Amino acid sequence: MDITTALFYLFSAVLLASSFRVITAKSTVHSALFLILAFFNASCVWMLLKAEFLAITLVLVYIGAVMVLFLFVVMMLDIGSDRVRDGFLKHLPLAALVGALIALEMAAILMPGFRLNQPAEMSAAVQQLGNAKALGVEVYTSYLYPLEIASVLLLVAIIAAIALTLRRRKDSRSQDASEQVKVKKADRLRIVKMAPTVETPAEPAADNNTGAA
């Protein structure tokens, strides 16, 4: 067994263990931290497969941005994990069945791809261009239309999420820039003439101790 195979088994074992702890940890913060560990080990496995661009993207996007956002949301909302986990054992058989079906479907789709023989000229081209550049050329040439369709679907999902969650509060105050520009000095300032008044000086208070024996 060489060092690459040993590292693959090591990263895969830690990945499986951390993924299992994501769904079994009692604290939501611990679950998020175990998910970060799972992402990190998955990026290490991709590095062993010479997919440097995907590994760096996983670290920067998911670990550096998404998981940090998850941690902020979890810590700010202070969600009670006991209430969320009610009925966990009752739904466990159905969840295990659905998970097994998803795993079988992914295996049926991905396993034929591992048996394909990559042409020698493609391997040479990838080695010459580099992993990131070759992936960009492949995506924006052979898979341009699926990429555009996915982009449109994501845009529609973002707009739908904003439209569903946008609610006008009655106690909120907003400013209209166009109305502020139209305002004149007479609308904001009014000069009032008042008669001058003369203030009389206050008389000093009498000393109560005067004349006391």
Write up this protein:
With 213 residues, the chain is mainly alpha-helical. Among the domains are: 1-84, NADH-ubiquinone/plastoquinone oxidoreductase chain 6, subunit NuoJ (Four Helix Bundle (Hemerythrin (Met), subunit A), Up-down Bundle); 126-165. 69% of the residues lie in helices and 0% in strands. It is built from ten helices and no strands. The chain has helices at 3-24, 28-48, 52-77, 81-84, 92-114, 120-129, 131-139, 144-165, 177-182, 185-188. α1 packs antiparallel against α2 (28-48), α2 (28-48) packs antiparallel against α3 and α6 crosses α7 (131-139). The termini are far apart.
Average residue pLDDT: 78
Helix content: 55-70%
CATH-assigned fold name of the domain at 1-84: Four Helix Bundle (Hemerythrin (Met), subunit A)
Count of individual beta strands: 0
Main sheet record: none
- Based on secondary structure, the structural category is mainly alpha
Low-confidence residue ranges: none
- Provide the succession of SSEs: HHHHHHHHHH
Strand percentage lies at under 5%
What is the CATH class name of the domain at 1-84? Mainly Alpha
- CA-atom Rg in angstroms: 34 Å
Distance between the termini: 115 Å
Q: What is the overall number of helices? A: 10
Please sum up the structure shown:
This protein is an all-alpha fold. It has helices at residues 3-24, 28-48, 52-77, 81-84, 92-114, 120-129, 131-139, 144-165, 177-182, 185-188. It has 10 helices and no strands.
